[in-house]
Design goal:
The structure is a homodimer. Chain A has 12 helices and 16 strands. The first copy, chain A, is an alpha/beta fold. In chain A, strand 3 and strand 4 form a beta hairpin. In chain A, helix 1 crosses helix 12, helix 4 runs parallel beside helix 5 and helix 7 packs across helix 8.
Amino acid sequence: MAASKCSRLNGELSRRFLASVDTVLFDCDGVLWRGDEAIPGAPDLINGLKRANKRVFFLTNNSTKTRSMYAEKLGRLGFKAEPEEVFGTAYCTAIYLRDIARLKGKVYLIGGRALSEEFGAAGIPHLGCGADHVTGTQKDWASVQGDSDVKAVVVGFDEHFSYMKLNRALQYLQDPSCLFIATNTDTRLPLEGGRAIPGTGCLVRAVETAAHRKAQVIGKPSSFLYDCVVKDCGLDPARTVMVGDRLDTDIQMGSTCGIRTLLTLTGFSSLEDAKSYQDSGALSMVPDYYVNSVADLLPALSEERQ
Amino acid sequence: MAASKCSRLNGELSRRFLASVDTVLFDCDGVLWRGDEAIPGAPDLINGLKRANKRVFFLTNNSTKTRSMYAEKLGRLGFKAEPEEVFGTAYCTAIYLRDIARLKGKVYLIGGRALSEEFGAAGIPHLGCGADHVTGTQKDWASVQGDSDVKAVVVGFDEHFSYMKLNRALQYLQDPSCLFIATNTDTRLPLEGGRAIPGTGCLVRAVETAAHRKAQVIGKPSSFLYDCVVKDCGLDPARTVMVGDRLDTDIQMGSTCGIRTLLTLTGFSSLEDAKSYQDSGALSMVPDYYVNSVADLLPALSEERQ
């Protein structure tokens, strides 16, 4: 099994692969786009898959957009997409709190507008959005008045993250019954030109370090985004593939869920990273296949349609 | 050896212990005070040790005060102390950059006024102090203009810690030749009444997670504060003891430096924590002795002086 892993997908193998697949799950950042630039050929691939009657879903750890905002960005970059095809951590965290945790109470939210909107749509009361600058002295920080209805702390991407937010999270989390949820733990957000900015994982580690607790993580490599797709839309695992640029999130999640995995080299992880996991026996982070770019599948797709 | 560790220091054992010691190294937070309240009896002990011709030094991971500010606080709470007896991480980080790293360039400092003052006194140019709120978009954050003279990032306690500071640190640390120093990694700062606020360790973990690098740590359990005492003042390790409230910092440092160690139970670690380390064989974090409070040594001290 190990020997057949991490095969380059091209030629006849690509054609057989596409014929064996009904449902394709795509990560977004580093797979379909970098920052605000589409990966060349990626829109043609997505739109072509749909014309070939494949189902396409977008599974993203990034919590800065609602389902509608993602559909709008996908459309702007040339991808045909509907909000109901998007399973991002802003939406899925709201679903988790409403349907799985059945939260009775408010959320203290370290996060941005998209999380706030998805929480609002799911009927989850929350507070904490926007700037929260420090004032006063250490003694004041330790005795900040919390809202006694807060029963969960959620950490997502928040460009207004501050010492004061970290402190409020600690004060809430000292109650062991307070839930502690992270949208995702990606360490960096890759942008155009190889640049990067700190990801949500940095904020999660800060809060975990203060609270002496580990957060429960909604995003990949957890299977929860996949579970949401299965629940809402159904799928046949034997005819489904996860396409992503990160071995420790996208590929690991695919392995956990028992579906095939495809690494694309336009984002975070390299082929050397995959070989290194293969050599060390960490096979759940080794993809079944890899391509240099998702556009590499275009020739096989156009042949399949002829 | 293990069986004789973690003995309660009282009665005759206290008297023999004090007679065997010339130099006493004290941690401060949780040992001599909590927040702005002295531990009852602690000032009498420090002042009594000095009258008995013991040398006393203060070794603190807390980077929010200069040597002078610590001497002032010690004095205000009733302790006799001179700035030259204080070896805090604000001062010792400046000494490290000047004398060990021999830094040629500027420091990007995540830290407060005390670090800035000690850096200034040591002639180390630095920038970054004060509030730094986020503006613009992700693309702007990834392309923030750095100062090309910055050759080190230092992370200490900073109540103005923000996403923008985290981002600036990441942009500097992407250059592998940029030094990465942390004053300390304490996860919480204990205050009066059992309350706590997030410690420098939370900020360090956030920056480490973004940078994909580990910081070099100046504070305990590193031996650098001890090395500074030895270099400036000299001491006989066989007649020196480290007194602290944290097993993973104070007691570990004492063990590393080959001096005796005394845990006091007025702060972070409990006797159960020490027994647990003893049972698991992590003996470098098991103290030689413990007391409920440093004030427990007062009777033996007054007898010694008679």
